[in-house]
Amino acid sequence: MSAKDCGNHKRRKLHRRLFATLLTIIIIILFIILVIWLVLRPTKPRFALQDATVAQFNVTSPNTLSSTLQVTLYSRNPNDRIGIYYDRLLVYASYHNQQITLPTIIPPTYQGHEDINIWSPFLYGSSVPVSPYLTLSLQQDQAVGFFLLNIKIDGRVKWKVGTWISGTYHLSVSCPAYMTYSSTNGIRLQQPASCHVDV
User: Per its UniProt entry, which superkingdom is the organism in (predicted)?
Assistant: First the structure.
């Protein structure tokens, strides 16, 4: 056996050991991540629309819509070991997939383990330009006495476990608001609704 063959053999042996060590480290890291996930069981927050009262919702010129409403949003952290930091939450209303109010900012807040937050922001939209078909849809909906708004929340969240705080994640919440219209009671939410949450 020559010195060259011996050197190649040692190099191959070293490569195998390095590969085995690297593979072992990766398996250990994945196992630790799995154990942490099984212990913490992270779950995204739950949101619900509890109330919505519309003070103004009408066409102010051929293609503009003015609206004023107050919504009450309920948020619950279902995690018993993970806290949630809400950062820069923007709440707005949309009608037929068109934003009809300016975003209202909910101040940054922390939600502890299994805590509940309730927010009641006012949403305003004065002479917001909308598609021409929206005017006709609004008139038809008011004639029927029923229409659908969507209350949306866009923002950022961070997870807190002990003293560790995660990076920032995008939060998107969509709450269907089935509204009833009557000349005596005005425009009100028909019933509370749960919201769809994406993180």
Answer: Eukaryota
